[in-house]
Each structure stands twice: as C-alpha cells, then as structure tokens.
C-alpha cells in the first residue's frame, strides 16, 4: 500500500525538476533558430520589424475574430519554420494566457460588467449572472494576450539570441538594457543547473522523507547558501565575459544582408496589418 507522504514528496520533486527543466529549455532554445525554416531564413532586422507590426496590430484591434486570424497566421508560420506545434503551444498557452483568464474571469458577471444576460446560476443561495459584454470583453482580452505572447515567443524561437540583441541595438535600444538581457540569458542556465545540483545533493544525503523541523533547517540553510553562491556566480559570469572582450555590444561573425525575399516579406506583413486595421474600423 503506497504512502501518501511519499506521493506528496514525489509530486514536489517532479514539480521542482519540471520547473528547472523548463527554465533551462527556455534559455537554450536556439536549436529551433538553427533549423532550416521560413522565418530562420529571413533577415533578423526585417523579421523584428514585421513582428513588431503584428504585435502593435494585435494590441490595437478590438475584434477577437480579427486577432484570432492573426493568431492562426502565427501558427502557420510555426509550421513553416519547422517548430513543433505542441512545443510552441505548451510555451505560449499554459502560463500567461491561462493566468490572464483567471484574472479576467470576474468581469464576465453582471456585478462587474452590466449588460444583456447570457446565463444565470444559483450556488449556495448566491445568484450569478453572466452578461454578453462581460464574455466579449474576457474573450477579447485572453485572445489578445495569447496572440501577443505567441508572436514574441515565435520571434525568439526563430532568431538567435545574439542576432536579436544586435537588432535591438541597431534600433536604438539602450546598451544597459541589452547588457542586462545578455547577462540574464547566460546566468539563468547556470543558476538552474546549480539549483538542480543542490536538490540532488540534498536528496542523496537526507533522503526523500525527513522530520519536518530537520527539513526546515535544511531548506533554510540551502536558501542562504544558494543566495551566496548566486551572488558569487553573477560576478564570475560578468568577469568571464569581460575577459573575453565583451563590452556590452553584441558581435556577430556574419553581417546582415537584405534580400528580395526579406523586402517581400516586409511588404506582406504591412499589407496584412493594414487589412486588419481596415477591417477593424469597418466592423
């Protein structure tokens, strides 16, 4: 007969290891940027401008149907870029959009958004009424968030990290911002690996099940130890980057070259955005 305490600890262990694996995967996703796909073949400058246009369009539109069209176009680009759809959906739909759904959920009720009732229910003597404006506003909010997150994630998956940072500098983004992002990108993977090693060391020395007070002491000691080690690690990462000639400016061996394909893509992106804006004003 299985022990519930063992199940609880196994659940915590799987949750910690899954979170660390997701963090490491998020910082080492350049595998997809190196594949031969449609978006990977475009000039990063033109690709960034087009995705920024799509993002502005998604935020500006007030029709969930038109934003859904942009989201469908994003999924088509995922297929053309040799990125697994399941991997993409997991990264874009299970966190921020789902969290936004819980945030906007109270606004569907008549107490928050008055309007024509769609459905009513009675629970424990409390009457709840869901209104049409509330549902429309919630759907618009969630679809807009999901589309915006998908566009940003698709750009990061299909573009090398160094190329994306260089594009940001070419567009006038302050150097301190680019330097901070570059440091975080290199540091997060090392931090996740360190936390995973600490967890494995605790499990090998203490075991899965331990006394509650002893477990609290072990956790408290490791939190303090992790804080000290991460502070030292951040300094070491920064000094290692400086010793290799890093000055805050992203450097690439290859230069950006615009081709007719890039100009055609940019033209198509502008046409799509203009069409969606036109349809949004005529609805």
Q: Summary?
A:
This protein is mainly α and 283 residues long. The chain is built from 11 helices and 2 strands.
Order of helices and strands: HHHHHHEEHHHHH
Q: Please, how many domains?
A: 1
Strand order of the largest sheet: 1-2
Shape: flat
- Radius of gyration using CA atoms only: 24 Å
DSSP E strands, number: 2
The average pLDDT score comes to 78
Low-confidence stretches: none
- Percent in helix: over 70%
Overall structural class, as computed from helix and strand content, comes to mainly alpha
Please tally the helical runs, counting DSSP H or I stretches of 4 or more residues: 11
| Percent strand | under 5%
How can the largest sheet be summarized?
Answer: 2 strands, antiparallel
Write the layout of secondary structure elements.
Blueprint: H1 4-27, H2 30-33, H3 44-60, H4 64-80, H5 85-93, H6 96-104, E1 117-123, E2 126-131, H7 132-157, H8 161-170, H9 175-206, H10 212-243, H11 260-282
Antiparallel strand pairs: 1-2
Helix pairs in contact: 1-9, 3-7, 3-11, 4-7, 5-7, 6-7, 8-9, 9-10
Overview of this protein structure:
The chain has one domain (7-282). It contains eleven helices and two strands, in the order H-H-H-H-H-H-E-E-H-H-H-H-H. With 283 residues, it is mainly alpha-helical. The model has no long low-confidence stretch (mean pLDDT 78). A two-stranded antiparallel ribbon has the order 1-2. It has helices spanning 4-27, 30-33, 44-60, 64-80, 85-93, 96-104, 132-157, 161-170, 175-206, 212-243, 260-282, and strands at 117-123, 126-131. The radius of gyration is 24 Å and the shape is flat. Helix content is 72%, strand content 5%. The longest helix has 32 residues, at 175-206. Strand 1 and strand 2 form a beta hairpin. Helix 1 (4-27) packs antiparallel against helix 9, helix 3 (44-60) runs antiparallel to helix 7 and helix 5 (85-93) packs across helix 7.
């Amino acid at each position: 007969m299985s022990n519930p305490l063992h199940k609880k600890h196994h659940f915590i262990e799987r949750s910690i290891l899954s979170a660390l694996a997701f963090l490491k995967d998020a910082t080492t996703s350049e595998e997809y940027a190196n594949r031969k796909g449609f978006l990977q073949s475009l000039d990063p400058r033109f690709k960034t401008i087009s995705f920024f246009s799509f993002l502005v369009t998604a935020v500006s539109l007030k029709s969930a149907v038109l934003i859904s069209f942009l989201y469908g176009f994003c999924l088509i680009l995922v297929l053309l870029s040799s990125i697994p759809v399941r991997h993409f959906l997991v990264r874009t739909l299970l966190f921020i959009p789902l969290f936004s759904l819980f945030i906007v959920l109270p606004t569907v009720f008549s107490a928050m958004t008055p309007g024509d009732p769609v459905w009513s229910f009675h629970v424990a003597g409390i009457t709840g009424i869901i209104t049409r404006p509330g549902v429309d506003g919630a759907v618009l909010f969630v679809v807009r968030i999901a589309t915006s997150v998908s566009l940003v994630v698709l750009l990061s998956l299909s573009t090398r990290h160094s190329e994306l940072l260089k594009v940001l500098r070419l567009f006038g983004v302050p150097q301190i911002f680019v330097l901070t992002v570059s440091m975080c990108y290199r540091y997060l993977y090392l931090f996740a690996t360190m936390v995973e090693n600490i967890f494995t060391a605790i499990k090998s020395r203490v075991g899965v099940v331990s006394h509650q007070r002893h477990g609290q002491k072990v956790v408290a000691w490791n939190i303090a130890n992790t804080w000290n080690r991460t502070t030292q690690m951040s300094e070491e990462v920064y000094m290692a980057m400086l010793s290799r000639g890093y000055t805050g400016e992203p450097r690439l061996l290859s230069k950006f070259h615009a081709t007719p394909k890039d100009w055609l893509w940019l033209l198509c992106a502008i046409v799509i955005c203009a069409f969606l804006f036109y349809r949004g004003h005529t609805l």
